[in-house]
Specification:
Layout lengths: L1 E2 L5 E2 L1 E4 L7 E5 L10 H8 L7 E5 L17 H15 L5 E6 L1 H12 L1 H7 E7 L15 H19 L11 H12 L6 H13 L2 H6 L1 H6 L3 H5 L6 E6 L7 H10 L3 E6 L6 H4 L1 H22 L14
Helix pairs in contact: 1-13, 2-3, 3-4
Length: about 300
């Protein structure tokens, strides 16, 4: 547990060897929690003596972390929170950042707000089902005009929820919402465990978190920020049937990160870490191994300008 500068407490899970050559920090999506990464945490532990240190935390207003007020429900604040988590739990050594959905946007905000720190500490990236262009490409799998109407309704509803406080009446409605969530968040296949974890996390998110972060998420523009750090090993994944962050989002990120490997997972939706855990885990392990090899060769954290050339 860490208490942030504004008094909010974050629930943090730390695993793996203390003297690991690489630390992996996992950041989950909007209305989810650190359990989104459960399969990837297991895969990283399975690396044996080469396993990294792994830090997974519940974002403010999510999971077991403390609630936040409207002023704190922004991506800018989440970027600052990530900086505090890294300073506290990974003060030295190369870091690999992995973000799903809002978690990927959190990474971009950390890079934007703390560029020198990001450049000196971060040596690899995994960006899953996320965007650097707000809701520019979001169509919910619908025709453009209908998508505009849905976005307007969503935005108005989010404003109301943001002012509704830290209570959770929607827990009782989750069974009725299940078909809509299944359609919106998943692709062709959806395992029962993945669906239950997704719904339980949503049930723990208070109304002011569900609504409060929406405006910041919709308005973020960080492609230029990513381009400044395009020389590090990176992987970008997206589901071929993602209705929230479609393939165009991942393609623009990959263009900004010339060293990134872009993977479009056929038939998959938005919840890739749970829906297609093997593909996500494989991509993360590849980035971690590359960073570990580079760190071993250099005998120090990776320096600017060399990461991309030595990634293969």
């Amino acid at each position: 547990m860490i208490t942030l500068a504004d008094g909010v407490r974050l629930h943090v899970s730390v695993s793996g060897p203390e003297n690991a050559p690489v630390t992996v920090v996992l950041s989950h999506g909007w209305c989810q929690d650190r359990r989104t990464w459960r399969h990837q945490v297991e895969a990283l532990a399975g690396m044996g003596r080469k396993a990294p240190r792994v830090i997974a935390y519940d974002t403010r207003g999510h999971g077991r972390s403390g609630s936040t007020d409207m002023a704190g429900a922004t991506l800018a604040r989440l970027g600052d929170d990530m900086a505090e988590v890294i300073r506290r739990y990974a003060p030295t050594g190369p870091v690999v950042l992995a973000g799903h959905s809002m978690g990927g946007m959190t990474i971009m905000e950390y890079a934007h707000r703390h560029p020198a720190e990001f450049a000196s500490r971060v040596s690899g990236l995994l960006l899953v089902s996320t965007t650097a262009e707000g809701h520019a490409h979001t169509r919910y799998g619908l025709p453009p005009q209908l998508a505009q109407v849905l976005r307007l309704g969503e935005t108005l509803g989010a404003g109301l929820l943001a002012r509704s406080g830290a209570w959770r009446p929607h827990r009782m409605m989750l069974p009725a919402l299940r078909p809509a969530l299944r359609w919106l968040l998943f692709g062709d296949e959806c395992g029962e465990e993945a669906m239950l974890l997704t719904m339980r996390a949503l049930g723990r998110a208070p109304l002011n978190s569900i609504g409060g972060f929406r405006g910041s998420i919709g308005g973020q523009l960080r492609l230029d920020t990513l381009a400044e750090f395009g020389d590090m090993p990176a992987a970008v994944l997206v589901g071929g049937r993602d209705r929230l962050t479609p393939t165009a989002c991942a393609e623009s990120i990959a263009r900004a990160l010339p060293c990134a490997e872009l993977t479009v997972v056929p038939g998959a939706g938005h919840m890739l870490p749970l829906e297609r855990p093997d593909e996500v885990s494989a991509a993360l392990l590849t980035v971690v191994r590359r960073v570990a090899r580079q760190a071993k060769r250099a005998r120090r954290p990776i320096t600017d300008g060399t990461r991309c050339r030595t990634a293969a």
